[in-house]
Design a protein that fits this description.
mainly alpha
């Protein structure tokens, strides 16, 4: 386990490059936009299924 952590730290030091501040900001905006779109899509599907279930059970009751 100790070897794994040592190798991980070495890889982070020598093989990983961080994006520039501008690139990180652009990527953050892209992630935020997709997260909002996914949340809206999830809300829409949930609302649709909720209404379909209500219609189904109202039809069973009446």
């Amino acid at each position: 386990m100790l070897t794994y952590f040592k190798e991980s730290v070495e890889e982070l030091k020598h093989n990983v490059t961080l994006p520039s501040r501008a690139e990180a900001s652009n990527l953050m905006v892209i992630v935020a936009v997709f997260a909002i779109l996914f949340a809206l899509a999830t809300w829409g599907v949930d609302t649709l299924f909720s209404r379909l279930v209500q219609l189904y059970f109202n039809a069973l009751i009446n």
